Amino acid sequence: MSTQQPKISLSGAQKPFFFGVDVGGTNIKIGLVDDLGRTLAFDSVPTNEPAGPQQAVEQAARKCRELAASLDIAWSEIPRVGLGAPGTMCLKRGLLLEPPNLPHWSNFPIQQALAEAVEHPVSFINDANAAAFGEFWVGTGAQNDSLALLTLGTGVGGGFICDGRLIKGHNSFGSEAGHIIVDSRPDARLCVWGGGRGHLEAYASASAVAAIAKERLDAGAKSTLQSLLKHQDAEITAKQVYLAAKDGDAFALELIDETAIYLAIGITSTVHTVDPGLVVLGGAMNFGGPNCPVGKRFLHGIVNEFKQRTFPNVFAGTRLDFASLGGDAGYIGAAGIARQDFRREQ
Amino acid sequence: MSTQQPKISLSGAQKPFFFGVDVGGTNIKIGLVDDLGRTLAFDSVPTNEPAGPQQAVEQAARKCRELAASLDIAWSEIPRVGLGAPGTMCLKRGLLLEPPNLPHWSNFPIQQALAEAVEHPVSFINDANAAAFGEFWVGTGAQNDSLALLTLGTGVGGGFICDGRLIKGHNSFGSEAGHIIVDSRPDARLCVWGGGRGHLEAYASASAVAAIAKERLDAGAKSTLQSLLKHQDAEITAKQVYLAAKDGDAFALELIDETAIYLAIGITSTVHTVDPGLVVLGGAMNFGGPNCPVGKRFLHGIVNEFKQRTFPNVFAGTRLDFASLGGDAGYIGAAGIARQDFRREQ
User: I need a surface site. Which of A151, B41, B101, B200 has the fewest CB within 10 A?
Assistant: First the structure.
């Protein structure tokens, strides 16, 4: 697995170094990052979710030691490790609670387990928070004091940073952009995690876009996706919606435009709450991103609706853009949080 | 004008002391507060808005000196003054921009003007942010690390504090609870300040409750308020809605229940954004507050709707309550922000 970040050589790197560990449902990404957020070394290990968290933590720790050894970096030169993992979690106790994507990892004290395995202090945060901190440190937000990241993937995650500090929350539920209410109607779509109706994630995640497309196609909507559905008997995905839109399918384009409107409602409430000056869209569902006409139309739709729902001076003082670190944001941000905690302790 | 805060004597007070100056449309409240947030002295001066901001700032500064002199406190013993004022504003430049309630005070450098008049450094914040900090320091949130205050008055203000820090925002538009989107329908009510449709303030401010009541009464709704409207040819106010509800008027009770639902939608988005663990309702429109059946029903309605729209663990970890400092919250909080800035500088 390659990293998009330019790697730098050890001779050009600035000490101290920090490991970032980004736990996903399939792989655990591990990067060694220098004091300026540049990746010195990167690798990954399989999550192997059903085998439980202890083996995964030990594998990750072993990989960290291997990467350090491969560069002849003494273990003592790495003062702290950052850990990002998907929720639900209790940050104060360093616990995973009941993470939907890691069903065999419930109630596991992951922070302490990793700290014991790496024999260093560990900073522990939510994976979307980690990605936000990565974009804030060396990505799209590198010139900003504050930033809100929304990650559009299977779900909608978030990470809000105000004056350099992540909003983690009293219940480890801060920055949960996916659960901002964007549809107040009594028949609004239900949150799949049991959080009630009208949450952004039920409208603007890849799963939601796929589900809404499927419902409308089943109800007879005209689209090139109909033939795909019939011929392949396949599930509709957000990527298929994107590909149809790229080919000019009106149904797919309309659905993407609608997704932009719900996102803009969520972004407006985010901006009127934390007013970050910069809102960044990350995650796999970017409809082609900044270099694709569909991605541009998607971003333009969000910007246009946001303009209708906020004040001229707030609109003028807020930039909306795509994330720039791709899949590296998580481990870089986890390392960045470790660095921030380390510096505060000095 | 009396203060609700217990005053303490100079002999029992803890140094250093801070002035809090709370600018309102009618009066400027001025309190001298000790290092534990206890009021040593309080008074007010008329805002006299049309006479412009310079005279008001000078009057306030003169009153500060009078209060200090009356207690034989040397001016040098007060290291800093806190100033809260209604927006719009630019906190970074210490400017009032175009405050709707202070139409003759546009583009006034109020922070510097007060600093020159009191010959001390001045900390400058939004009035609702100041009230939030007051409740956080010595009010309903005194035992908490974080807090979200929503002030229900002519408008809906907000102040969100995360781990002791106010969310002020890149555009001085952080914590603006009144502009969270709570109605996503295309025909949602318009923000009176030009911020688009569906903002909380258009549903849960005293002005909005009055306007909605009037619209429905004009359309023929059955209510005891109809006779009031006919006999007195008066404007309907939120207070009249409250008084009718207290007498059991079904129309008024239903409107208050609806207001609770919109507030709960806004509170849910607030909690899923900053996750403060404590949400406090302040401002004049409290429908009788915690000691009145209508106030209790109002709070219960909010809590019940919030429960439907969030997750069980977030609901369990979040308290909703009324504010406790009344009209003192603003100057106490302004003094508290001055104290926080002073301590950071030490």
Answer: B101
Helix, strand and coil content of chain B, in percent to the nearest 5, comes to: 45, 20, 35
Q: How far is B299 from chain A (nearest CA, A)?
A: 20
Residue B3 above 60 pLDDT? no
Whether residues A184 and B182 touch (CB distance < 8 A) is answered with yes
Give yes or no for residue A6 having a pLDDT over 80: no
The confidence score (pLDDT) of residue A233 equals 65
What is the rounded distance in angstroms from the CA atom of residue B323 to the CA atom of residue B144? 14
Residue of chain B whose Cα is closest to the Cα of A179: B272
What's the predicted TM-score (pTM) here? 0.96
Find the Cα–Cα–Cα–Cα dihedral B157, B160, B164, B168, rounded to 10°: -80
Across the interface, whether the CB atoms of B170 and A311 are under 8 A apart is answered no
Quick: pLDDT tens for B52-106. 999 999 999 999 999 999 999 999 999 999 999 998 999 999 999 999 989 999 9
Query: Looking at residue A5, what is its pLDDT?
Result: 58
Spatial CB neighbours of A215, under 8 Å, sequence gap ≥ 6: none
Reported ipTM: 0.95
> How much is the pLDDT for B233?
65
Cβ-contact B200, B177 below 8 angstroms: yes
pLDDT in tens, A149-164: 999 999 999 999 999 9
Say which of A170, A185, A313 has its CB closest to residue B171.
A313
B162/A183 CB distance under 8 A:
no
Nearest residue on chain A to B199, alpha-carbon basis: A309
- pLDDT of B234: 75
Asked whether the beta carbons of residue B174 and residue A273 sit closer than 8 angstroms, the reply is yes
**B315 to chain A, closest Cα gap in Å:** 9
Give me the residue from B169, B176, B275 closest to A169, CB to CB. B275
- In order, the DSSP letters of B164-178 are TEE---TTS-TT-GG
Alpha helices in B71-143 (DSSP H): 110-118, 127-138
Calculated CA dihedral for residues A105, A109, A111, A112, nearest 10 degrees: -140
Cβ B194–A162 below 8 Å, yes or no? no
For residue B176, the chain A residue with the least C-alpha distance is A272
Helix (H) or strand (E) holding B43: strand B39-46
Q: Report the mean per-residue pLDDT for chain A.
A: 95
Of A165, A181, A194, which has the smallest distance from its Cβ to B311's Cβ?
A194
Indicate the residue of B197, B198, B311 with minimum beta-carbon distance to A195: B311
Coil vs helix vs strand at A277: coil
pLDDT digit string, tens, across residues A166-180: 999 999 999 999 999
Q: CA-CA distance, B231 to B222, in Å (whole number)?
A: 15
